[in-house]
Amino acid sequence: MPSQKRHFITLVYLTLSITFIQIPGSEIFAVYDHLPLKSLEYSDSKIIKVREEIKYNLQISVSNLEQKNLVPLRFLVYKVGPKDTFFKIMARTGMDLDTLSSVNQLASPQDIYPGMELLIPNMRGVYDSEESSSEESVRKRVAARFRISPKFLYYDDLRKSWFVPGRGLPKEEKNFFYGLVFSDPLAEEGRVSSKFGRRKDPFTKKDTFHGGIDLAASEGTPVYASADGEVSFSGTRGGYGSLIVLKHGLGYETKYGHLSKLLVNPGTKVKKGQLIGEVGMTGRATGFHLHFEVLRNSMRQRPVFKGHV
Ligand SMILES: [Zn+2]
């Protein structure tokens, strides 16, 4: 699964959805809908209600009132249908890009699939991606960064993160979401030979999940850092063969597998486009190719960058 952890979070939310989540000594975090949102029709009563609440809450959060003036945070649960797109769901539910992607921890608009359960909150806002502590001093720090009164923030004890009503994603995070941060690690010298997602395993022929994309290229093709970062691993690891792992900002990592040459050492800072290795077929590979993965908070994401999606 691309999103085992995310799925787990959704499942936990659903399990806890019987009434609400009460955090001892603090405000209620949110109320979860028992019954899933069945349709995206504008005439659906749940859609009408959630759109009204979003509008109302937006007015409150841009004014200087307090959290108690908001309609309390609650989530609808929507199961993605085969013809749904990120933007259709966003428009129909009165969401905006920042809210829908942040609440559901999506890495890109392509990062949804039929059957996936999306949470639709009744207010716009985003999760802070930097702080995890619920301490009052942290509340103030997050509020200051988002230029909002600390009284507005909700602490989500399950996710260990602050929900900031009425605010959007920081620019850097938005750039990741639009695929503007990562570049093609082979500088268009490769050809996509296997996409991200479900596929037949080339060895066992069984249906498996492919957590990255494969870019076929001849042996020795230069491999470049896909974004600025720091080398966190350079060595041999199981099926990946010779592997380089780079750490980027905001919990993002990239992996470069099956290399024939490793040209950087752990701890080295690298720039986007810097040469880090060469294409090979070490590890579990049937031909010369780069196995490229993008991870966020250890979850594998659909790699999105210019050239290959
Ligand atoms: Zn692969």
Write up what this structure looks like.
- With 309 residues, this protein is an alpha+beta fold.
- The protein has two domains: 4-177, no CATH class; 191-301, Glucose Permease (Domain IIA).
- The protein contains six helices and 19 strands.
- The chain has helices spanning 4-15, 45-62, 86-92, 97-103, 136-146, 171-177; strands spanning 20-22, 28-32, 74-79, 117-121, 125-127, 154-156, 161-165, 191-194, 197-200, 207-210, 213-216, 222-224, 229-236, 242-247, 252-262, 269-270, 275-279, 289-296, 299-301.
- The strands form four sheets. Strands 8, 11, 12, 13, 14, 15, 16, 17, 18 and 19 form a ten-stranded antiparallel beta sheet that branches. Strands 1-2-3-4 form a four-stranded mixed beta sheet, with helices on both faces. A three-stranded antiparallel beta sheet has the order 5-7-6.
- The radius of gyration is 21 Å and the shape is globular.
- It starts with a helix and ends in an 8-residue tail after the last strand.
- Bound molecules: zinc ion.
- Zinc ion (ZN) binds next to loops.
- It holds the Pfam family Peptidase_M23.
- This is M23 family metallopeptidase.
- The chain crosses the membrane at residues 12-32.
- GO terms for molecular function: metalloendopeptidase activity.
- Keywords: Membrane, Transmembrane, Transmembrane helix.
